[in-house]
Specification:
The chain is about 30% helix and about 25% strand. By secondary structure, it is an alpha+beta fold. A hairpin with a 2-residue loop joins strand 8 (about 125-130) and strand 9 (about 130-140). The chain is globular and about 55 Å long.
Length: about 350
Amino acid sequence: MPSRANQRRLQIYTGDSHWYVSRTDATRTAGIPAAGDGQALIEHLFLSKFNGGFAYAPHPVAIRSCRVVGDHVEVRLDESGFISEYHYDIAEHAICALLPFQAEDGELGGVYGFRLSHFDTRGLHLRLLQAPDARLTLVGPPPSRWRRLLAERKHDLVTAGAIPLWTLSVFGRAEQVHQARHGAYEGEEAEMRWLTSDVLRRIGLWHTTSTAFCTRYWQHGDQTMIWELRHLYGVRPAHDDFAALLRDPVWGPPLSIWKYHCDCHHRRPDPGGRPHPDYERQCTFHFHHSDQPGVLQIRFRTNAPSDDEPEVRQELQAAQADSVWLSRVLPQRKLVAAPGTR
């Protein structure tokens, strides 16, 4: 029978719903399966290029959860994100970031080798030419919405003199040129796909465990993935809990702490009960596997209060962020920002 302890762990790590984890056979055994080589590649390329941390969304980096189904994954997207009251459709962002096209100047846009398989009530199904068995499904709007977004994207590209490539059965001209120019470098970066995939399959940790209200990530270019977590002044970063979960021998990826620096106990002057305008604290953890390429660097940052905090909270509320999570990462307060802080 499914284990309640496993159900809770699966929910914490993946961000999936209680309804699903209480019914899936995945909780009969503990742990999250690792992806095969080709499947890890499509998950690596997705997370590297999706860049969901560009806006404030209900979940960090606009991903609600990642569900392992058989030998592939379903990535559940948030509906919308906000920046300065501007509304972003996350499904539209995903299509623009991932689906490849040849620009008017011949350059490649989107992700090399990504192809649209089909879309249905489960979501938008993607595959990868260089790994034919790999599959990744984006779960979000209904089929009618996917159909409209795809038609609009195609129309905009063709109008701009570009050529959509996501339905081709072979690599397009722009993809061939891109591979010849950048294939060696991107292939080296993709050697860390096991790590990127393991992070994606545990994407729920950034919502269930982190105390950051803003999360960004990017590839550094030296087989390092950097995650930067911004915390409200006065909210303690949960890096000890985070590190323990990442190093859990059953549920976490096979990682150890390579090096770290903790700034939590370094006091800074708080004139007049407020932090100095130049206040900044950062605890940095580097995780790695001694026998595998790739480093996961997580930066837990805290800055002085700024005048935009109420606006950020309003944007997250407008995006329908969970109230319990919002109270944890952005508790309402009357602390006034120091002069010159924005």
